[in-house]
Amino acid sequence: MESSEPEPTEDASMDAFLEKFQSQPYRGGFREDQWEEEFDKIPLFMKKAPSEIDPEEFPDLACLQSMIFDDDRYPEEQAKTYKDEGNDYFKEKDYKKAVLSYSEGLKKKCADPDLNAVLYTNRAAAQYYLGNVRSSLNDVLAAKKLKPGHLKAIIRGALCHLELKHFAEAVNWCDEGLQIDAKEKKLLEIRAKADKLKRMEERDLRKAKLKEKKEQHQNEALLQAIKARNIRLVSESASEDEDSASNGPAEILLDGLSSENPYGARLSIDDQGRLSWPVLFLYPEYAQSDFISAFHEDTRFIDHLMAMFSEAPSWDSEHKYHPENLEVYFEDEDRAELYQVSPDSTLLQVLQHPRCSMKALTPAFLVCVGSSPFCRNYLQGKKVHR
């Protein structure tokens, strides 16, 4: 009868193995002070996947990733894997990586239109939260082309149009979605908001058109008033000659040249058809100036000078700028000549002078103390018409 007990040689080998196993420490165990860090490197127990997978630091995870994204798998399987990965990033609000994952899924060009529509819609959502609204809308359009009744894509498209201030389009997209689900709460909210903003936009547009039309009528009235007075205007363009200046007023006024006035004032006309001009007084001796926002055409120069110099300005250290001492000139830039203005003249009388012209609808006049050395030196060499 054969014995079932092991041979003596087998017992000796087993004893030697056990003795060796007991004498050598186990090298694959966790260190007591780092067991949590080591545990977190095992894919099954990871609380959060690392942003970059280093094969040396995370060999198990790198192996899994290689298996998951193996190019030998069907495109549909790979696309779905990337979709799931993108969804995980989206939940973590890491929208940039979500976009990359969805994009990789679309690159697989799988034959499932529903899956591709979901990838486009999900990427649209990630793009939207990144602030790339137009890219989001492009993805929505691609998703809608693949799956016309995809409600999530329609909702996202309505949001994009609302963000881009395409209020009418947003309403249309909402209406399309509500035909699919008339009780969709998100679409009802978007539609109500878009419709309200659309009405406000239309109201503001009507107001702007009425304002523009009113300003055009005012400018045309100003144009007729200037032409009736034979006042000479010139364009800012140095290339235009004197003959072309006759076309200037209409162009200047109707294009709203008053906006070029640095002081914000503009030519105006009252109920009696009388004009008030923005006028600039320049004091070359001290490089100073005064601006009169509304110089009525029937007002005399002396009236403004009396008001401005009733008290000495801060820059007149010698207190010599008194109305009776002042001389006023306008310049004929074409001929580089000066014309003295009588203080008792009205603004209209001066503007109707054949050599008086202005730019930007703002007449400018030089003012200096007639008896001062500066005035004599300033006028020396210039042709002055008194």
Automatic annotation (TrEMBL):
Record bears the keyword Cytoplasm: no
Name of the coding gene: Ttc4
InterPro entries, alphabetized: Csn1/TTC4_wheel (IPR044059), TPR-like_helical_dom_sf (IPR011990), TPR_rpt (IPR019734)
Annotated source species: Mus musculus
Coiled-coil boundaries: 180-220
Domain Cns1/TTC4 wheel: 272-358
Family classification: Belongs to the TTC4 family.
Pfam families: Wheel
Keyword terms: Coiled coil, Repeat, TPR repeat
Single Gene Ontology MF annotation: Hsp90 protein binding
Protein name in the entry: Cns1/TTC4 wheel domain-containing protein
SUPFAM superfamilies: TPR-like
Gene3D superfamilies documented for this protein: Tetratricopeptide repeat domain
